[in-house]
Amino acid sequence: MAATLACGEEAVISHRSAAALWGMLPDRAETRVEISVPGHGGRRKRPGIRIHRSATLGPDQVTRRLGIRVTTPERTFSDLGTMVSPRELRNTERQAEVLGLKIGTDVTHEG
After folding, report:
1. What would the pLDDT profile of 38-71 be if each residue is shown by its tens digit?
2. What CA–CA distance (Å, rounded) separates 52 from 35?
């Protein structure tokens, strides 16, 4: 939660950090917290935080979990589609299904 507060009121936990918060991926304590902020504008770097800027992050893709602003499971899964291996994406999809999380599965892995 501190990471979102440090990055402004529109900041949300996203990507791997959101997947861990939702229980779709294991928490990797050694990695930086991933945050998304809407828009293209710059934000200064912060230790321990990886900031993603998104022109497409809308209010309908943000919710709260355990009192923390986080991307929805569907947006989280979409964000992961371009940054994890196909195997890890399949595992994430299976775990989301077990948890009953709606993620939409029309994501394709790039690269």
Report:
1. 876 655 677 788 989 899 999 999 999 999 999 9
2. 6
